[in-house]
Amino acid sequence: MAEDVGILVLGHGSSKPYNKEMVEKCAELIGRSHDGPVKIAFLNMDEPNIAAGLESFAGSGVKTIVALPIFLAHGVHTLEDIPTELSVDPTLRRGSCKLNGSEVEIRCAEPLGVDDSIAALAYRRASEALR
Amino acid sequence: MAEDVGILVLGHGSSKPYNKEMVEKCAELIGRSHDGPVKIAFLNMDEPNIAAGLESFAGSGVKTIVALPIFLAHGVHTLEDIPTELSVDPTLRRGSCKLNGSEVEIRCAEPLGVDDSIAALAYRRASEALR
Questions:
Q1: Among partner residues B72, B110, B116, which is closest to A128 by beta-carbon distance?
Q2: Which residues does residue B89 pair with via DSSP β-bridges, in sequence order?
Q3: Do A64 and B107 touch (CB under 8 A)?
Q4: Please, are residues B38 and B5 in contact by the beta-carbon 8 Å criterion?
Q5: Total domain count for chain B?
Q6: Are A22 and B73 a contacting pair at CB < 8 A?
Q7: A113 vs B107: CB contact, 8 Å cut-off?
Q8: Which residue of A57, A89, A92, B120 sits 20 to 30 Å from the alpha carbon of B79, by its own alpha carbon?
Q9: From CA B94, how far away is CA B106, in angstroms rounded?
Q10: Could you tell me whether strands B102-108 and B94-99 are parallel, antiparallel, or unpaired per DSSP bridges?
Q11: Strand B38-42 relative to strand B5-11: parallel, antiparallel, unpaired?
Q12: Do A122 and B73 touch (CB under 8 A)?
């Protein structure tokens, strides 16, 4: 994707450090593929929160921010809480915000969902448990 | 893995149908690779619960059940709640149960964790959001 597209990688957040570590590492891996800025934010418990995550793109020159939930499936968090925090229409799943006085488009990506790669990784974890 | 190994695919559960649908589909895909029985159970809200999920292996002849959390990262659910529900030691992450009077070993698998395949799938979801 173009370098004027920012990706805001969104995690659930947790009282333990593992969700944040996973989201940070995932954002790092995504950053290896993506030419634009990649930032992180969390819905609960961890920092930065979503508002601060959006603000972190200020000065980057992005014209669009894709809010990318690192969630396995849709649920209340992806369908209601994240759009609300982003102030975007939960049905359209897109909207805009102002950063440094410029209008920036926001798009909500779908969660990971079912994919052969997820099933293959899960089966690998099952195999590892027998060692 | 051998056909006397059962896999209990564990989901978080949700008030919406999407988590259950994702777990069911994931279990179906895992079942295409695995020779033994594959069942599902949920921690919250959806059925069957974990106790009923274990019971669903009765009569299958499995000697080991791998509890496989379809979670992205460790947290309270994978480290505490799931071992508690399975009545296995949360540190050893293994134990046993009785099914039809026979002792069956239980092993807790690790969550999916960070993997290139997860990052690649997430980046694909970000790209799709721009269409």
A1: B110
A2: B94
A3: no
A4: no
A5: 1
A6: yes
A7: no
A8: B120
A9: 5
A10: antiparallel
A11: parallel
A12: no
B77 is catalytic: no
Over residues B46-92, the pLDDT tens digits come to 999 999 999 999 999 999 999 999 999 999 999 999 999 999 999 99
Q: Which of A113, A122, A114 is nearest to B1 (CA)?
A: A122
Domain containing residue A73: 5-128
DSSP string, A61-92: --SEEEEEE--SS-SHIIIIIHHHHHT-BTTT
Name residues whose C-beta falls within 8 Å of residue B131's C-beta, 6 or more positions apart in sequence: none
pLDDT digits (tens, 9 = 90+) for A77-97: 999 999 999 999 999 999 999
Provide the H-helix boundaries in chain B: 18-33, 50-55, 76, 82-86, 116-128
- CATH number of residue A46's parent domain: 3.40.50.1400
* Burial class for B104, CB neighbours closer than 10 Å (0-12, 13-18, 19+): buried
B26 → closest Cβ in A1, A15, A114:
A114
Tell me the mean pLDDT in the region A104-112: 98
Distance CA B26, CA A48 (A): 31
Show the tokens assigned to B47.
């059925």
Element (H, E) at B60: none
- Torsion over CA of A82, A85, A86 and A90, rounded to 10 degrees? 50
